[in-house]
Amino acid sequence: MVDGTGRTGYSNDAARRLVDKPEEKIEGLLVGDIFECVHASQPGGCGGTEHCSRCTIRSCIEKTYATGLPLYDVPATLRIVQEGTRKDLSCTITTMKAEKLLRGKPAVLLSVTEYSIH
């Protein structure tokens, strides 16, 4: 569960296994920081670099949050740093507006499926 900016409020076991981090290391972070996107470490951070406007994950979260419309099985690739090496995380994402509130605001359920890291 993320807010409209992509800041995490809740993660399930599958999400924590995907990023190999415990819940306390995920909660409150932006999606790019959780996945260790290479651009998240640049000045401006996740959401604040020139590359972020082309981020499929970010744009799907923002679109669903703003419109309430779900987006299903959208292909996305995120350049990440894993064990000191740059890799591509290819995945399929689905976003849905959630009735559950995060910090008093509506939330978006972000589902990551069919992923591979190469």
Write a compact overview of the structure shown.
The protein has 4 helices and 3 strands; from the N terminus they run ααααβββ. The protein has a single domain, classed as Beta-Lactamase, CATH 3.30.450.
- Give the C-alpha Rg: 13 Å
- CATH architecture title: 2-Layer Sandwich
Total of domains: 1
Q: What does the largest sheet look like?
A: 3 strands, antiparallel
CATH topology (level 3) name: Beta-Lactamase
Number of helices: 4
Distance between the termini: 26 Å
What would you call the structural class?
alpha+beta
Q: Segments where pLDDT lies below 50 for 5+ residues? A: none
Q: How much β-strand is present in the residues?
A: 35-45%
CATH class: Alpha Beta
Core attributes:
single chain, 118 residues, alpha+beta, Beta-Lactamase, globular
Indicate the topology:
Layout lengths: L12 H7 L3 H4 L4 H5 L20 H12 L3 E12 L2 E18 L2 E13 L1
Antiparallel strand pairs: 1-2, 2-3
